[in-house]
Design goal:
The chain is of the alpha/beta class. It has 5 helices and 6 strands, in the order ββααββαβαβα. Helix 3 crosses helix 4 and helix 4 packs across helix 5. Bound molecules: ligand AR6. The site of ligand AR6 has 25 residues, from strand 2 and helix 1.
């Protein structure tokens, strides 16, 4: 699994699956979630509603998969990150679970190329540096048991892009 970073709007990426930083209602919201539903169209929301009818809300750290509607990718994997508030180890573990559970779903669906946004680091206010470390560590631990070929950390804001750039640079030296 090749791991790369890029700075882009995740809704423009032509990969097999993009991850959405959703909330437990699965019914959309602001940030990247808003952009995905807006550009992907009503098909995504319909699919989310079906999942809700089947299983209820999506718990923090868990993930579900739907069509990507009108987006260039094939699937959207919706994962619910933790709200930072006062922080704590449990929040760190929940964020790691988002990456793990999304990767598990991707493998189950034979997805080969995948892009993650920086889950929880916007509206949910998870510290960006800590979130990036957790994301990189979790993905690295998955690297060898995965059938995924390419994984992108799709940074949107400059700060996250710089953090990932620094952390990945250090990893390679
Ligand atoms: N492409 C890629 N990344 C983006 C995009 C985009 N188009 N737009 C924002 N980001 P956030 P959260 C980055 O707030 O913190 C929603 O209302 C952004 O810069 O989207 O997990 C949900 O419904 C940040 O680094 O998600 C939930 O209620 C990252 O995406 C809540 O927000 C995550 O920011 C989830 O909060």
């Amino acid at each position: 699994m090749k791991i790369q970073i890029l700075q882009a709007d995740i809704t423009t990426l032509k990969v097999d699956a993009i991850i959405n930083a959703a909330n437990s209602s699965l019914l959309g919201g602001g940030g990247v979630d808003g952009a995905i539903h807006r550009k992907g169209g009503s098909e995504i929301l319909e699919a989310c509603k079906k999942i809700r009818a089947r299983q209820g809300k999506c718990k923090t750290g868990e993930a579900v998969i739907t069509t990507a509607g009108k987006l260039p990718s094939d699937y959207v994997i919706h994962s619910v990150g933790p709200v930072w508030n006062t922080g704590g180890k449990d929040k760190e573990e929940l964020l790691a679970n988002c990456y793990k559970n999304s990767l598990d779903l991707a493998v189950e669906h034979n997805i080969k190329t995948i892009a993650f946004p920086n889950i929880s680091t916007g509206i949910y206010k998870f510290p960006k540096q800590l979130a990036a470390k957790i994301a990189l560590k979790t993905v690295a631990a998955y690297k060898h048991k995965s059938s995924i070929d390419e994984l992108y950390f799709c940074c949107f804001d400059q700060k996250n892009f710089e953090i990932y750039h620094e952390l990945m640079k250090n990893e390679h030296t």
